[in-house]
Automatic annotation (TrEMBL), chain A:
GO terms for biological process: intracellular protein transport; vesicle-mediated transport. Keywords: Membrane, Protein transport, Transport. This is Beta-adaptin-like protein. Subunit of clathrin-associated adaptor protein complex that plays a role in protein sorting in the late-Golgi/trans-Golgi network (TGN) and/or endosomes. The AP complexes mediate both the recruitment of clathrin to membranes and the recognition of sorting signals within the cytosolic tails of transmembrane cargo molecules. Belongs to the adaptor complexes large subunit family. It holds the Pfam family Adaptin_N. The keyword Membrane applies. One of its GO terms (molecular function) is clathrin binding. Adaptor protein complexes are heterotetramers composed of two large adaptins (beta-type subunit and alpha-type or delta-type or epsilon-type or gamma-type subunit), a medium adaptin (mu-type subunit) and a small adaptin (sigma-type subunit). It comes from the Eukaryota. It is found in: Endomembrane system. It comes from Olea europaea subsp. europaea. Residues 694-811 form the Beta-adaptin appendage C-terminal subdomain domain. One of its GO terms (cellular component) is endomembrane system.
UniProtKB/TrEMBL annotation, chain B:
This is AP-4 complex subunit mu. PROSITE patterns: MHD (PS51072). The keyword Transport applies. It holds the Pfam family Clat_adaptor_s. Belongs to the adaptor complexes medium subunit family. Residues 183-383 form the MHD domain. One of its GO terms (cellular component) is endomembrane system. The keyword Transcription regulation does not apply. InterPro entries: Adaptor_comp_med_subunit (IPR050431), AP2_Mu_C_sf (IPR036168), AP_mu_sigma_su (IPR022775), Clathrin_mu (IPR001392), Longin-like_dom_sf (IPR011012), MHD (IPR028565). It comes from Olea europaea subsp. europaea. The lineage of its organism: Eukaryota, Viridiplantae, Streptophyta, Embryophyta, Tracheophyta. One of its GO terms (biological process) is vesicle-mediated transport.
Amino acid sequence: MQLRQLAGSRAPGTDDSKRELFKKVISYMTIGIDVSAVFSEMVMCSATSDIVLKKMCYLYVGNYAKNNPDLALLTINFLQRDCKDEDPMIRGLALRSLCSLRVANLVEYLVGPLGNGLKDGNSYVRMVASIGVLKLYHISASTCMDADFPAMLKHLMLNDKDAQVVANCLTSLQEIWGLEASTSEEAAREREMLLSKAVIYYFLNRIKEFSEWAQCIVLELVAKYVPSDSNEIFDVMNLLEDRLQHANGAVVLATIKVFLQLTLSMTDVHQQVYERIKSPLLTLVSSGSPEQSYAVLSHLHLLVMRAPFIFSSDYKHFYCQYNEPFYVKKLKLEMLTAVANESNTYDIVTELCEYAANVDIPMARESIRAVGKIALQQYDVNAIVDRLLQFLEMEKEHVTAETLVLVKDLLRKYPQWSHDCIAVVGNISSKNVQEPKAKAALIWMLGEYAQDMQDAPYILESLIENWDEEHSAEVRLHLLTAIMKCFLRRPPETQKALGAALAAGLADFHQDVHDRALFYYRLLKYDVSVAERVVNPPKQAVSVFADTQSSEVKDRIFDEFNSLSVVYQKPSYMFTDKEHRGPFAFSEELGNLSIDTDLANDVVPAQRVEENDKDLLLSTSEKEENHGSINNSSAYDAPSYDGSRMVGALQPQQDLVSLDQPPPANTPASLAMDDLFGLGLPVAPSPTPPPLALKLNAKAVLDPNSFQQKWRQLPVAASQEISLNPQGVSALSSPQVLLRHMQGHSIQCIASGGQAPNFKFFFFAQKEDEPSTYLVECVINSAACKAQLKIKADDQSTTQAFSTLFQSVLSEFGLP
Amino acid sequence: MISQFFVLSQRGDNIVFRDYRGDVQKGSAEVFFRKVKFWKEDDKEEAPPVFNLDGVNYFHVKVVGLLFVATTRNNLSPSLVLELLQRIARVIKDYLGVLSEGSLRKNFVLVYELLDEVMDFGYVQTTSTEVLKSYIFNEPIVVDTDRLPSLGPAALFVQGAKRMPGTAVTKSVVAHEPGGRKREEIFVDIIEKISVTFSSSGYILTSEIDGTIQMKSYLTGNPEIRLALNDDLSIGRGGRSIYDYSGSSGSGSVILDDCNFHESVHLDSFDVDRTLTLAPSDGEFPVMNYRITQEFKPPFRINSLIEEAGPLKAEVILKNYAEFPSSITANTIVVEMPLPTYTTRVNYELEPGAVGQMTDFKESNRRLEWSLKKVISLAAAHW
């Protein structure tokens, strides 16, 4: 209020005092105090020739007009007058403010000045006007379209001498047509026009006239252009080659996107592009602020993940510096993990081990995880296992915890190392391990290797004694399973502990723990040998741990190169609303540039997700956990237990079994278990059938849904890694060829995908005379000339025959 | 397109706030600041420069303790926005002479004027100090330049260290000299960040030089300038692995792994005589960035020896050898050593007779700092 009086009384004062006053008003505005009360006074003061004063006034008006539409009307008059001022600066400024009012019922006053602005002789005014059209569109789309402004913009875009005007027209048109395209066919056509050869070449030829920011806009447009032949591709790339040396990272990344998109269909050139862009990217990472280098590094990360072998000799660039922020280090660790191969693993792991001793705990954890991941990639496992075991001897809680989890995963993949690992793990006092994940891992190992660890039953026993203090359900679940395994191997020593564990488990308030305890209890009661088969089946080494991201998602992110998707490692639909996806969205509609050429393309996403979910499940929780859930679906309720029963339950096992229980359900339970075996157990090896020539049905049919269903239901009957001959691999440049080859041998492909060097195929085949189906997942790594097969079959007995047949067919591939 | 731009002080106050599109809520600055401040409770991790919260993407860069933030709902190019934020900071510095909370507060109207021209409706128009000059009418209010940290890429390279800026470089591109006449000056700095990793036995594991040629011109009329680089400079290392130290490359020749240039640089004669031609525009900008992984002799060599002196005590001996020609002296050197989180007390002992040396234990980030005002070659300092 005081301000208002001041404004009113001082209005006739000199410009200088007004300036001070205006400043005060604007500073209040900045810190969020509502000063809209002085609106009319401010407007009155704006009738001045002092341009500084005018600018402040425009700023003020722009801020408050939206919420005070009536008062905004007051400003129209002087703004319109200013739009005709002699000074082009004032014309431009007034026009900008006029368009920024954001008041819907004032749009009629906008059309005239905007039209004049677009035709103004001064480029500054045209620049303002071309963005002004876009502002008008957002206030009232119909007014904008009715006045035919887009057509005028198009004309200006193709003819104006000033590059910034051209760039502004392009941005406005892109936004307007992009939004209109869904409702108007004409707009959709116009939008495609932007991608026509003529328009693209027009922009490309002028590219050096544009400012660096406008260049980014043009390059973004060019990335969506689909050239007609390879000569054109090379022309465009040669023209843009020097943009890679630009100091502005945004220009370089936009150029890289163009290169990558153009060469997607040309495998070898695409690879050369990677080689070419490597250096500029590394330079950008090391110059500029940490924030800028983070943005570039995220993109580098994406490329490294796609083609690790190209970057494998640059691994030293991914070493962390101690003063880098954690988010940078994390990316670098992931890249180090990805580029590890035979020749550099030693160096990388040595470096990572240094980080593991870091005082920075999150960093140390990440480093240990990275070491473990490299081990799982199976390079130089020998040395790595030794190092991991050394970590355990460092006796730092977080290091031990992280390492235990890794050792567990390693053992699942390389059971042959169990001896060395167990010796060290056995020395760890369970009291020093507090983190649930680590504790669960330790317990898993105690159970799994109970026969090799002298103290296993006693350690488990002491853990069970502290059952009530164990807060993590995960740990308690593992404890139950481990004690079961231990019991089955060393019954006399474990019996007591088992009884205690089951009793405690049954009394547990956590549903899963309770159910699992009950399940084990009934299982033991039913038949110990069945229990043995459920809890301690012969295990197959896990060959591949699941990738957390499906290749579908990865391809999407790659298509959205040079956008936030890369930084977040999520495709844009996961973090933006539809209407804000902006110019990036339209690359999807415009021709699917993805590598998949397979006809059955549509099935792939679902399939992959399915696959992933399953693998994920296996890697996060133990296989056995699948069993625990059966009780949830079984028909009967868990009997209620009270304290007195629990005391009884602490008696030896025989007693436990004879505890009076609702007697029914032996049969249904065992049936349920049979189902379970189907899921978790490779069926007991049947006598190997004579390698009779397996005849396959050449016209086998299977629809994707039933494939999926079968894949889910059937156990893996055979899992193998085989080497491929190099000719075959080189012929793989187009997956189609392989599919045709397999088809020639009556093996059909249902889905395929991936990109060099990793391809994934799902095949199926049927026996000639009966509807017995074989399903194959085949992951081919063309860099290593290796293929990993997972075969599932309706008729398990002939798996071996089929597997042999499949391998021989695959190995013939590529041979003349 | 960018929705909002704002500058926050270290305490989270809005210094400048500009809304370009009105599609992000007004309280975004507060939301942002709270999120950054409490990114992870154990404050071990810093907030990344880009994050998404309820559909709004927040970008930020830290410049001299101030947070420059942009928000958008769109899926923009992160490097474009972060580059832009950095550039806005540089433009503001060009105009104000110095960038600090105080100078921003005093000149916020000028800053608004700049922001209006830099972006329109969230689209970048220009960030060229030169071009902007014709649109800007406010005069900067110059703040005292004493003891203000320098800005720009230069500052980034000397993280933490105090590099005293010459007062001349902190004058505004538009302010008039008190004497009325403009001084014809140009400043060219070469800033190199040398990263070397030694193994515990003193063997060099990795080494890299990241350099910038930084220029700030106050010349009127933008005359053409030629920068001649070493004749024997070559770029790229052909097919050789960049870490191939064995093939000793002839003495003296400099091999850049890669470099990039500012857009005003013409490279017409670069291939012939290694000369860069440019008409420097007003304001500060990097003429060239380059990267070298060629083998070189690091200027310093640090040696550390750790001994456990008791159950709760460790003794560290740090030695710093200067290995550059005696004709050169090195100024304001800081040696930092991270310490374990449970460090409670640190005692230091400098070599007797050490002049201009200081040691300090920074409790907040568990760092030991040893600063040396001046180091002359061959005089190994240690404590």
